[in-house]
Every structure is written in C-alpha cells, then in structure tokens.
Amino acid sequence: MEKKMKKLNTHHQNAPRFVFNWTLLLFSASVSAISITTTAPPQPFDYADALAKSLLYFESQRSGRLPYNQRVTWRDHSGLTDGLEQGVDLVGGYYDAGDHVKFGLPMAFTVTMLSWGIIQFHDEIAIAGELEQTLEAIKWGTDYFIKEHTSPNVLWAEVGDGDTDHYCWQRPEDMTTSRQAYKIDQNNPGSDLAGETAAAMAAASIAFKKTNPHYSHLLLHHAQELFEFGDKYRGKYDGSVAVAKSYYASVIGYMDELLWAAVWLFEATDKEEYLNYVVDNGGCFGGIGWAISEFSWDVKYAGLLDKDQHKQHAHILKQYRSKAEYYLCSCLNKNNDTDDNVDRSPGGLLYVRQWNNMQYVTTAAFLLTIYSDFLRDSNQNLHCPSGTVDHEESLSFAKSQVDYILGSNPMNMSYLVGYGSKYPTRVHHRGASIMSYRE
Ligand SMILES: *[C@@H]1O[C@H](CO)[C@@H](O)[C@H](O)[C@H]1NC(C)=O
Ligand SMILES: *[C@@H]1O[C@H](CO)[C@@H](O)[C@H](O)[C@H]1NC(C)=O
C-alpha cells in the first residue's frame, strides 16, 4: 500500500489547486510558546498578518453576489446564473485557484480544514482579531453547500469544467465559458464528495454552535443526510462526474472520506453510532492498514487522529493513531527507511509532488501543530522508529515550514502573496492578473 501511495506522486494533474493557505490560521498566537533554539537571529514573522492575508484570499475566490462589506474590491458579482440551466440555484461558493470552476471536493475539504482550525485554535484566532473573518470564510462555503444539497440524495458536485474554462483568460465577472452543473445522486453515486461535504458541514456546525445555533443545527442536519447518502450509495464521484476526473480525481477512493465524515459527525453529535462506524469499518475501509505520507483533499486518513477517550474501543483507535503517527514521523524524517519519509527540498521544505506542493506543506504543519498540543497536554512523546519527538520539536518543525513559506527560504521571499516585502507578483490567477473590474 505504501509503495502504491508513493506512486501517486506521478499522477497528479496540471490544474492549479484551490487548497492553499488555511494552515496559516493556526500560527497566529502560538508563537509565544516557541523557544527558538538557533543561532541565527529570529525572523520577526507576523503570524497575525499572515492569517489576515490568508483570509483575504478567500474573498478573492468568492463566486456569486458579493456583500457590501467585501474587502477585496477588485472583485464584483459573478456566476449569477450558475445552475439556472439545470433549474437549481447554485450561485455562490468559491472558485478554484486561478480558474473559475467550482469543484465540490477540494472546496469542501478546505471548509472542513477552516472549521477544524477554528475549533482547535479559537482563542488564538480571536486574539489575532480574525474570528469574524474566519467564520465568514467558512460560511461562504457552507451557504453554498446548503444550496448544492437539493434533496437528501442529490448533491451538485461541480459548476463549469476545467477544459472549457481553460480556453479563456477572463475575469470571473466577464465569464463566457460553460457553466454546466453536474450532480451526484443515487444512480450516480459519489461517496467521497458526499462524505467530504458531510465532514465540512459537521465541522462547521461545531464552529457555529455558540454564535449561530440555528445555522449550526441546519448544517448538522445536512451533514447527517449527506453521510447517509454517501454511505448507502457507494461509489467514487469521478465515476459519476467525468469532468472532475482530470482535475480532482478521487485517486484514493471514498473510504477515507466516509470515515472522516463519521469522525466529524461524532465530534458534532456525540452519537455512539458514528464512533461505532469508525471502529467497525477501520479494517475494511483501510483506516488502520495504511501507511501514507500525504494529507490532502484526496487523502484524509492522517486526519483521523484519536485522543484516546473511548476506552471500550481503545484497541482499534490505537491503530488509527499509530497510522497517523506514521504520517507525522514521515514528515519529521523519523521513519527508518528513507522511502517512508517525505522528501525535502534543498532548502528544507517538505516536498510531496510537483504541482501545488505548498498545500501538502500546510496540511502537514497543521497536523504537526495539533499533535504537538496533544503531546504537551497529555505529557507524552511521539515514538518514531528512528527517534523520539517531544511536543516542542513537533511544533518547531511545523513552524520551520510556515516560516519557509513566509520568507525563511533560499529566495528570501514570501510565498504568501501580499505578505512581507517580496512575494510573487505574477501568479496564475485570472481575476488578479487583469485590470480591476472597477476601472
Ligand atoms: C530503526 O532504526 C533504529 C536505530 O537505527 C533501530 O534501533 C530500530 O530497531 C529500527 N526500527 C525498525 C522498526 O526497524
Ligand atoms: C538571502 O538572505 C541572506 C541573508 O541575509 C543572504 O546571505 C542571501 O544572499 C539572500 N539570498 C538571496 C537570493 O537574496
């Protein structure tokens, strides 16, 4: 299985990816807890500023009718007839990367991760003054997921398609390319997409529980229905929505998303049935039998971390955890066989694959940070095959990856657009590369 996962490195497509910079969310306030043990002068990275810039990115990706308080003012309303041909209202959501397709799977994963960020680092985000913006970014996604889910067993999966979208370099406000919408239903299943969207809505329901209980409830209702739909009608969504296949193919399949959805539903509801699902399907769904060095919109297994709270299932849940630990050790370069570790660039950046590598770096930094907190709070160490790692080492490696992105790299350049004094200025992004709509 492990070798098979490595092979994945070659399959990936040439489309830009949406999932990008949410991980910066968590570094807002945790810096004070880090003791930097290097002789070089510490880089004065402003994580709160990086967090703010990451959230602005989500505004630049907005599709639909923009609100009065839109801060990215070179954008305007767009995609206002999305779904019209099919008789559904699919206005809203997020565009993918620099293009104008709305791809359900990576969009949902992004919203799951934003929600996880706020669940785990609520206070830090609040101290950075970005709580409201983060919730807005989540809600822009979940409002759209509610629209996509038009009946219990129907979920609209995509608007537009990558091929025709690539014909024209236009602002989203001027789009003339196809806005055909595609769905999954009981005859055309998509357990991965239904599972990820369920996970996103369940996680978001936790994020909104205090501030917007009615909305939280609504999200949970959709999440439960979607999970049932995905579980009952099994299949990969790219078998049903062929246009997704050359852009966001579900290479690993849907079992990780079903487990991931069940984990989030358990978190959101405390209902035993969801935990039992995770325990009962651990073996046959590959939850406890894999060794993977990637956590991404396609591959969720490493996110199935357990915190050891459920004594009666301790045996199975421990196996889940040991798999997550394999992933963490591989990021930390602490598995014995080099093939079992994630490659690093000469400058020390985790390197998973050629296209949009930074998404794997940010997901790794996210999990390493969460795990560091877990180790600290439970007074444990992570025992990797070639060495033991304590919570400080896990966090400082995560920090090194984020610092690389923000400028601590051989180019002395920030890879977060708008952050710092030197950053890429000719990114693959249509809206940003054409004169403002307002000029
Ligand atoms: C990994 O290497 C260490 C030290 O070289 C050795 O003690 C350990 O037994 C090895 N572990 C495995 C699982 O091979
Ligand atoms: C990056 O900064 C370091 C330290 O100031 C300097 O030695 C190096 O030449 C810089 N590299 C580039 C590509 O500017």
- Please give the oligomerization state of what you see: single chain
Whole-number tally of structural domains? 1
Class inferred from helices and paired strands = mainly alpha
Q: Hetero groups bound?
A: 2-acetamido-2-deoxy-beta-D-glucopyranose
Give the helix proportion (percent range): 40-55%
Strand order of the largest sheet: 1-2-3
- Strand tally is 7
Quick recap:
The active site is at residue 428. The protein is mostly helical and 439 residues long. The protein is built from 16 helices and 7 strands.
Question: Can you give a write-up of this model?
Answer:
This protein has helices spanning 2-11, 47-60, 104-120, 122-127, 131-148, 162-165, 191-207, 213-232, 237-240, 245-248, 255-269, 272-280, 314-331, 358-378, 391-406, 430-433; strands at residues 102-103, 155-159, 181-184, 343-344, 350-351, 382-384, 387-389. With 439 residues, it is mostly helical. It has a single domain, classed as Alpha/alpha barrel (Glycosyltransferase). Residues 1-39 have low confidence and may be disordered.
Summarize this structure as a short list of keywords or feature phrases:
signal; Glyco_hydro_9_His_AS; globular; Glycosyltransferase; two-stranded antiparallel sheet; about 450 residues; 3-stranded antiparallel sheet; mainly alpha; 16 helices; binds 2-acetamido-2-deoxy-beta-D-glucopyranose; disordered N terminus; Endoglucanase
